């Protein structure tokens, strides 16, 4: 319960919450299940396409033979896959991309490398395109997807992370800070005592089959369309400027394009092109067969079908980089890491069920976003800043200055069973990178709660705000 003490709100003890027992190694632990969980970023169970997955798997595996079973570019769905992944699946994916972005033939299968999801996809990118000894800096747009920090730390970039804030209401980034930082790093040159270039080469300039690879001097990570956590979409001008900077400074842009097809109130023709498409379009003709480009579109079907499939893809500006990503030692040894599930997804695209699943998700999430927007207007304090969510999973809400969001999130959790994602969780690691998102900001997810739960959760959040402000005025 909560008590008031000299205008300070004190949490005495958590109220009863729903708990489940977890049994492991003859020990029992308890896990709290919050009734209104706005934190999690996965679909509610009612949206998981069980029947469609069963149908596609049956269609795929029932025939004794498939036309592509012995084709080295495809292979049997239950066998080792080709390095890039089944070509017929990559062809289906390119058709999806070109149709969504109204491209005639901008993307083709040679630009696609299949993966086992966006998270492992980033590890694969870092393993094959960067080196902690040589790569000088990793720029991460802030606020950021909170789990990305650990991926970069695991890959050896602790201490090399630099936050770059979103600006102009989320349509751009702090280019001034980015360019200043790049100029400082460039002025430092190469530390010849450490033989950075040689160490980078020692890591390998070639991969399987003598395929060349390129180690980039800088890395940037962002989610440019319906961003996690802010919900922002960067303008075409911002994307073009990023490509120009990336080419000048030998920087690779890792663009997590996991939400762009979940557009609710935005016509697809109004969504800016993917960074990788702009990169490809602006490569000089004489370089198309010799350059790796400066961007990778890192994608997943977790948000578009179901996360348990653990399957995604990387799209690159040229075939050189896609091939490079597919020829790492582990991938070349085992083949495409999600061979069966990629073939199931290819079947879902072929039989039309993918589009049905996607439309159902968009319709459901759009309804939930509408409820969330109306509930925030109705229940949260005047002066709250919130834009209606137009796509993706997440949106960003900013309370007025007099409301301490971190304390209010604690009230919500312990007094009302409402779990909110405080802005502190979306900082880039490192004290020098802190932007202070936690004082007034919260990330909200539309994917997990049903519409009535969203309204009730926002209503209780409003009650927590009243409780907080009343305690301050005593």
TrEMBL record:
<dbReference type="Pfam" id="PF00155">
    <property type="entry name" value="Aminotran_1_2"/>
</dbReference>
<dbReference type="InterPro" id="IPR015422">
    <property type="entry name" value="PyrdxlP-dep_Trfase_small"/>
</dbReference>
<dbReference type="GO" id="GO:0047536">
    <property type="term" value="F:2-aminoadipate transaminase activity"/>
</dbReference>
<dbReference type="GO" id="GO:0030170">
    <property type="term" value="F:pyridoxal phosphate binding"/>
</dbReference>
<protein>
    <submittedName>
        <fullName>Related to 2-aminoadipate transaminase</fullName>
    </submittedName>
</protein>
<dbReference type="InterPro" id="IPR015424">
    <property type="entry name" value="PyrdxlP-dep_Trfase"/>
</dbReference>
<dbReference type="InterPro" id="IPR004839">
    <property type="entry name" value="Aminotransferase_I/II_large"/>
</dbReference>
<feature type="domain" description="Aminotransferase class I/classII large">
    <location>
        <begin position="80"/>
        <end position="457"/>
    </location>
</feature>
<dbReference type="InterPro" id="IPR015421">
    <property type="entry name" value="PyrdxlP-dep_Trfase_major"/>
</dbReference>
């Amino acid at each position: 319960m909560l008590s008031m003490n000299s205008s300070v709100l004190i949490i005495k003890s958590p109220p009863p919450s729903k708990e489940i027992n977890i049994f492991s190694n003859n020990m029992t632990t308890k896990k709290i299940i919050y009734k209104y969980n706005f934190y999690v970023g996965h679909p509610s169970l009612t949206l998981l396409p069980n029947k469609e997955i069963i149908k596609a798997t049956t269609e795929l595996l029932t025939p004794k033979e498939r036309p592509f079973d012995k084709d080295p570019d495809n292979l049997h769905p239950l066998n080792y896959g080709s390095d890039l992944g089944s070509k017929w699946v990559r062809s289906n994916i390119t058709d999806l991309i070109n149709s969504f972005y109204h491209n005639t033939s901008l993307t083709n299968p040679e630009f696609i490398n299949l993966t086992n999801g966006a998270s492992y996809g980033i590890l694969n990118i870092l393993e094959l395109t960067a080196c902690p000894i040589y790569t000088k800096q990793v720029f991460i747009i802030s606020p950021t997807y909170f789990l990305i920090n650990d991926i970069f730390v695991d890959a050896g970039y602790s201490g090399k992370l630099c936050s770059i804030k979103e600006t102009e209401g989320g349509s751009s980034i702090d280019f001034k800070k980015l360019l200043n930082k790049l100029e400082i790093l460039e002025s430092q040159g190469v530390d010849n005592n450490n033989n950075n270039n040689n160490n980078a080469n020692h890591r390998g300039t070639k991969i399987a089959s003598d395929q060349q690879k390129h180690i980039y001097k800088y890395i940037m990570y962002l989610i440019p369309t319906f961003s996690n956590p802010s919900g922002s979409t960067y303008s075409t001008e911002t994307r073009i400027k990023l490509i120009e900077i990336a080419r000048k400074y030998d920087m690779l842009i890792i663009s997590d394009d996991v939400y762009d097809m979940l557009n609710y109130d935005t016509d697809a023709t109004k969504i800016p092109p993917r960074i990788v498409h702009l990169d490809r379009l602006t490569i000089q003709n004489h370089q198309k067969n010799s350059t790796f480009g400066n961007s990778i579109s890192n994608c997943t079907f977790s948000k578009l079908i179901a996360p348990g499939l653990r399957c995604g893809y990387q799209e690159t500006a040229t075939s050189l980089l896609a091939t490079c990503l597919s020829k790492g030692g582990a991938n070349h040894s085992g083949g495409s890491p999600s061979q069966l599930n990629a073939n199931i997804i290819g079947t879902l695209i072929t039989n039309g069920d993918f589009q049905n699943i996607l439309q159902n998700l968009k319709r459901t999430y759009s309804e939930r976003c509408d409820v969330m927007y109306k509930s925030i207007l109705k229940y949260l304090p005047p002066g709250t800043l919130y834009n209606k969510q137009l796509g993706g999973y997440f949106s960003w809400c900013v309370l007025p200055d007099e409301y301490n969001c971190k304390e209010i999130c604690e009230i919500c959790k312990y007094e009302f069973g409402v779990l909110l994602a405080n802005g502190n969780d979306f900082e880039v690691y490192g004290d020098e990178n802190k932007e202070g998102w936690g004082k007034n900001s919260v990330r909200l997810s539309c994917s997990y709660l049903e519409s009535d739960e969203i309204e009730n959760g926002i209503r209780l959040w409003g009650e927590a705000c009243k409780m907080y402000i009343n305690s301050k005025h005593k």
